[in-house]
């Protein structure tokens, strides 16, 4: 009995000591962030996503009292940037400004990826969603999707559309339209958005896709024609442009999204802290108008669980789109 009492006393003393040490360690640990935070983006400076990422970083720099810097790592269909974050330390100092195709399309395009979209990341929050506009060169003898389908059926293979590469959102949407309308408009891939837009503006290709902000400028200047919008409802920026859903093509409905991710083992306390701070920022009227709504972005702020569920749903949906498109990158 004496042995048991002494053992119990020793155990209690050990637990007390451990608690004191833990409290001291917590008190001595610097508050996050104690140094600059890096936000990695898989696109070049000057792109729409880059401008949004920099606007977000500027506001978070003020909010967190530490520099938040955008690290552009373009190349390999965003794989370089995505892999860099997957391999980063899970300490909250390296985040990914993620594009939807990195998580929901690339797994279906590539036989092997250097990152696992499910296991290597902790979703933080959905930042924005936005649709894209199907644009036509003025010389194309069609002013609506119905007219486009009619002339494409009568002359299969004559008309062309540009994209930024096999498996891109533009490619998948166009091939879904080809499939559902029973037409064949030919795919012409380009290196990037500037080259694709130059091609459709010059008439090198007949059709292309663009975000609402870019589309509105070219349509207002009568340099291109807007045929339809890929989101589920019309945009207030161009309310005269119908959606594909309205026109009887629900399978061509697709929105693009940007989200924030951290390496998988990042502590949940940090995930919640970052989500809360970003969600409040997305709700600020000035930020919403200047950085989001005026550019055609729909603010979100979904939490980690809801965002993860969205990624899973879209991964399944995009698998079907990739199969229909026939896109494959080895």
Rg result: 24 Å
Q: Give the N-to-C terminal Cα separation.
A: 71 Å
- If you consult CATH, what is the topology of the largest domain? D-Maltodextrin-Binding Protein, domain 2
Main pleated sheet: 6 strands, mixed
Low-confidence stretches: 20-29
Count of the domains:
2
Oligomeric form: single chain
According to CATH, the homologous superfamily of the largest domain is Bordetella uptake gene, domain 1
Can you describe what's shown?
With 330 residues, the protein is α/β, with parallel strands linked by helices. It folds into two domains: 38-130 and 256-325, Bordetella uptake gene, domain 1 (D-Maltodextrin-Binding Protein, domain 2), CATH 3.40.190.150; 132-252, Periplasmic binding protein-like II (D-Maltodextrin-Binding Protein, domain 2), CATH 3.40.190. Helices cover 45% and strands 18% of the residues. The strands form three sheets. A six-stranded mixed β-sheet has the order 2-1-3-10-4-11, with helices on both faces. The chain has a three-stranded antiparallel β-sheet with strand order 8-5-9. Strands 6-7 form a two-stranded parallel ribbon. Helix 7 links the parallel strand 6 and strand 7. The chain is elongated.
């Amino acid at each position: 009995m004496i042995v048991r009492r002494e053992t119990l006393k020793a155990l209690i003393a050990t637990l007390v000591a451990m608690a004191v040490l833990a409290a001291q360690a917590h008190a001595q640990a610097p508050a996050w962030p104690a140094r600059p935070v890096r936000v990695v983006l898989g696109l070049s400076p000057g792109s729409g996503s880059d401008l949004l990422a920099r606007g977000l970083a500027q506001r978070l720099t003020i909010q967190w009292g530490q520099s938040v810097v955008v690290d552009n790592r373009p190349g390999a269909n965003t794989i370089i940037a995505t892999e860099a974050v997957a391999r980063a330390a899970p300490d909250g100092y390296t985040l990914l400004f993620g594009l939807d195709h990195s998580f929901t399309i690339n797994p279906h395009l590539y036989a092997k990826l250097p990152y696992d979209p499910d296991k290597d990341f902790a979703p933080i929050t959905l930042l924005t969603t936005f649709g894209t506009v199907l644009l036509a060169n003025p010389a194309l003898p069609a002013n609506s999707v119905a007219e486009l389908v009619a002339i494409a059926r009568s002359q299969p293979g004559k008309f062309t559309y540009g994209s930024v590469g096999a498996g891109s959102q533009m490619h998948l949407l166009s091939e879904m339209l080809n499939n559902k309308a029973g037409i064949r408009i030919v795919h012409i891939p380009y290196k990037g958005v500037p080259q694709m837009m130059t091609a459709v503006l010059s008439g090198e290709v007949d059709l292309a896709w663009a975000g609402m902000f870019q589309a509105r400028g070219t349509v207002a200047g009568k340099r291109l024609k807007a045929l339809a919008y890929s989101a589920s409802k019309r945009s207030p920026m161009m309310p005269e442009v119908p959606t594909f859903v309205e026109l009887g093509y629900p399978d061509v409905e697709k929105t693009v999204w940007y989200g924030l991710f951290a390496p998988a083992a990042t502590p949940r306390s940090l995930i919640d802290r970052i989500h809360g701070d970003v969600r409040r920022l997305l709700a600020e009227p000035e930020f919403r108008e200047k950085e989001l709504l005026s550019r055609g972005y729909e603010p979100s702020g979904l939490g980690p669980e809801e965002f993860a569920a969205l990624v899973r749903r879209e991964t399944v949906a995009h698998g079907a789109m990739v199969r229909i498109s026939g896109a494959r990158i080895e």
